[in-house]
Backbone:
RNA sequence: GGCCCCGUGGCCUAGCCUGGAAGGGCGGCGGCCUUCUAAGCCGCAGGUCCCGGGUUCAAAUCCCGGCGGGGCCGCCA
């Protein structure tokens, strides 16, 4: 007999319910939906209304009669995994047989070990997940943190489920923004990082400074023109914008006055900074050795910083994909542009090649494949600039094709913020237009909302962001203080190790526990709250289990544990909660939702802590003692699996 | 102007896909450390599920129309 404990519970009920309605009402053709019952109403429940409708009878009659039938079957020994059922106000409430499922749970955990909970009938796929992919022009901020944690956790989840997963970081080295930093460094004449600065932070500073200075010059020029033209309203608006950027300049200058002033001077003496920036971009795409050396060194500098930060929160990649290599220098983007240009939907607008997306959608009826409504208008896509350089979406088409071809993957998941929804739609439309409808269909935009700062929105161009480094460092500082209080006897390196792991857990959990579709407003007091529903709380619960197991000579053999006749409610609840794990994994995999894993982890720990406080384990008398030890062991095992999925470290002490 | 996401006790959040008994957490109040880590446990108070219609025996959930917040509609990425 296969299946996880609750699968067996469900199939037992389903079989009897269908058998009953077939003989009593002549039908068994209806869907049966199980839900987790509310507290005190059993373990699982089925709303019987739809069943009653299919049977053409009243819910009350159906419920009453089925309970009778069920109890008859139970008397005949036909029921094993269900303890009892009850009919209340339209619901069939089901109490599982905790002794039977406990035995099964022990056996499965023993046999399956670390793959307990893995879906049993899943078709494994090859999946490529692209995540984080921050532009290599400033340090990772909190928004990237959310992206990275979601992407990495998703990768861990899918890998656990049996899929073959690759994690890729797309290095965006071709855009104009990289040319901005490169311009700055070129003027400065050196890539040397000032004393006390992390490389990516310094790159971010130069990027923001160049942006700011160029913007100021542009606005001043515009103001003059508007003044001469006498356009008062626009003048006032522009003045306000100028004011905003002057504020930014003030903030930036404060950080590194020498560098900022020097850049200001150098940029001012350039008659046309923007043209110089475009020129760098053009040369880089063309593979000009000097431009290549400059841009690449800057990107490498920044990536070095990224890797350091990501390592702190347990994130690694299987591949770092350079946009320039894959899309531009290989000539692939040129070929794609040529192919797109030959389609009847391509037009030249002001010298730039443009793709008429809406018309393509209308003519070919692809909207269904891409899951968008027929009448929706989609803006045109600009494929190339007037100077012939390429644009992001066009290069992304090439990149996506590369992902599918090079690795033969079945599915590509792009973890990208919701503001790029349209770009991702354009990507899919272009793929389809090129004849790759499968690629279009199997490219998933895994969208998530912003992380906001109270009041302002983060802006790389303005140098306004809370970096991931700041948050991680502050978390670690707080954790270390706490560990010093709790575990004064440990060595410094042990304490630091714990603090590092707890800080990581706090951060990862904070990002993973909210659903991606919600905007998150960053709040120190929330991230630093280590009580229930936090990463540290989970680790604390784990350590408590370790504390018990550490004190016994050996872990009991799970298969031979005697399950006692009667249990404390907290033992029963723990068993049921542990048995829910496979359901949770299946749901998370189906809907690509890591937050349900986080939610489960928290709820499992709440249940365990109640058990921990209510019943003694080590002091218990013999039949109970072994049984409870088994429960603690299984809890530790399952929570450990959850930790692997969430990327939290399993600390024996905390 | 068009499109997308969000709106659940003072605050944060699950449930919405697949209609059926509103779950957590923070904060507040009151209890529990001579016994396995109190980052814990137990109890109490607190809710027009943004508003208005509709569908349904049944709506937080589905449909329509509003309101509020965020995002997108670039020869930026």
Residues:
């Amino acid at each position: 007999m296969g299946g996880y404990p609750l699968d067996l519970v469900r199939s037992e009920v389903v079989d009897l319910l269908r058998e009953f309605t077939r003989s009593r009402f002549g039908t068994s053709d209806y869907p049966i939906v199980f839900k987790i019952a509310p507290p005190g109403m059993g373990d699982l429940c089925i709303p019987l209304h739809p069943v009653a409708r299919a049977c053409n009878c009243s819910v009350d009659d159906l419920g009453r009669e089925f309970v009778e039938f069920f109890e008859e079957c139970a008397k005949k020994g036909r029921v094993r995994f269900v303890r009892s059922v009850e009919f209340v106000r339209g619901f069939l409430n089901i109490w599982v047989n905790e002794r039977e499922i406990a035995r099964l749970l022990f056996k499965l955990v023993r046999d399956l070990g670390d793959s307990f909970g893995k879906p049993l009938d899943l078709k494994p796929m090859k999946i490529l997940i692209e995540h984080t992919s921050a532009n290599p022009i400033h340090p990772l901020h909190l928004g990237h943190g959310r992206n990275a944690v979601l992407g990495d956790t998703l990768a861990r989840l899918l890998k656990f489920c049996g899929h073959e997963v690759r994690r890729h970081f797309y290095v965006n080295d071709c855009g104009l923004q990289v040319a901005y930093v490169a311009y700055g460094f070129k003027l400065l004449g050196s890539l040397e990082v000032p004393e006390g600065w992390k490389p990516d932070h310094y790159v971010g500073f130069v990027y923001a400074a160049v942006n700011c200075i160029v913007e100021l010059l542009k606005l001043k020029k515009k103001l003059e023109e508007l003044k001469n033209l006498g356009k008062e309203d626009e003048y006032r608006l522009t003045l306000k914008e100028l004011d905003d950027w002057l504020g930014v300049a003030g903030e930036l200058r404060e950080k590194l006055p020498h560098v900022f002033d020097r850049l200001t001077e150098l940029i001012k003496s350039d008659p046309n900074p923007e043209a110089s920036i475009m020129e760098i971009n053009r040369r880089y795409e063309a593979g000009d050795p000097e431009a290549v050396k400059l841009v690449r060194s800057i990107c490498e500098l920044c990536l070095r910083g990224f890797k350091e930060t990501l390592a702190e929160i347990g994130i690694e990649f299987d591949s770092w994909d350079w946009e320039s290599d894959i899309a531009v220098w290989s000539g692939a983007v040129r070929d794609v542009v040529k192919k797109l240009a030959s389609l009847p939907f391509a037009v030249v607008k002001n010298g730039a090649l443009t793709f008429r997306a809406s018309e393509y959608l209308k003519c070919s009826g692809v909207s269904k494949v891409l899951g968008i409504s027929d009448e929706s208008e989609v803006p045109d896509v600009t494929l190339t600039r007037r100077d012939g350089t390429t644009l992001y979406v066009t290069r992304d088409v090439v990149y996506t094709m590369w992902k599918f071809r090079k690795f033969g993957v079945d599915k590509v998941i792009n973890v990208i913020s919701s503001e790029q929804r349209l770009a991702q739609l354009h990507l899919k439309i272009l793929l389809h237009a090129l004849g790759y409808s499968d690629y279009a269909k199997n490219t998933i935009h895994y969208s998530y909302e912003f992380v906001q700062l109270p009041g302002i929105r983060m802006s790389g161009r303005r140098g306004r962001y809370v970096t991931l480094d700041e948050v991680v460092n502050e978390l670690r500082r707080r954790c270390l203080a706490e560990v010093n209080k709790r575990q004064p006897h440990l060595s410094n390196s042990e304490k630091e190790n714990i603090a590092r792991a707890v800080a990581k857990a706090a951060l990862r959990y904070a990002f993973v526990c909210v659903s991606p579709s919600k905007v998150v407003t960053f709040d120190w007091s929330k991230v630093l709250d280590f009580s229930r529903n936090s990463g540290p709380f989970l680790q604390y619960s784990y350590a408590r289990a370790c504390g018990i197991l550490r004190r016994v000579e050996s872990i009991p053999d799970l298969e031979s544990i005697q399950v006692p006749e009667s249990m404390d409610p907290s033992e029963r609840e723990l068993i049921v909660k542990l048995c829910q794990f496979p359901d949770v994994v299946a749901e998370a995999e189906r809907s690509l939702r890591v937050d349900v894993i986080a939610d489960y982890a928290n709820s499992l720990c709440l249940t365990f802590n109640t058990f921990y406080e209510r019943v003694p384990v080590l002091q218990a008398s013999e039949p109970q003692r072994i049984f409870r030890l088994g429960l603690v062991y299984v809890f530790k095992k399952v929570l450990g699996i959850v930790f692997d999925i969430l990327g939290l470290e399993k600390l024996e002490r905390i």
In short: The mean pLDDT of chain A is 95.
